[in-house]
Amino acid sequence: MKIRDEARQDQQAQQNTAVHNNNMINQQTQIILNKYRLPEEAYGRVWDIVSQNDKLTKEEFTRKMNKIINDFTDKQR
To answer: Is-above-0.90 flag for pTM?
Structure first.
């Protein structure tokens, strides 16, 4: 029974971490959308880049984010 309880607690902790990480990515995405006045349709692309933030170099992150910002600011003109 103890092993089952520990496994359940471990699974709950993993789920809590995943939810927390997802919430943090969402929060950062919303900050970027607001800061650069991007439309909601940019959300998916920005979310993808923010979710990869720990895997990208600062230069890669900046380059990809600038591309999205430029794509949507060109559309808004």
So the answer is: no
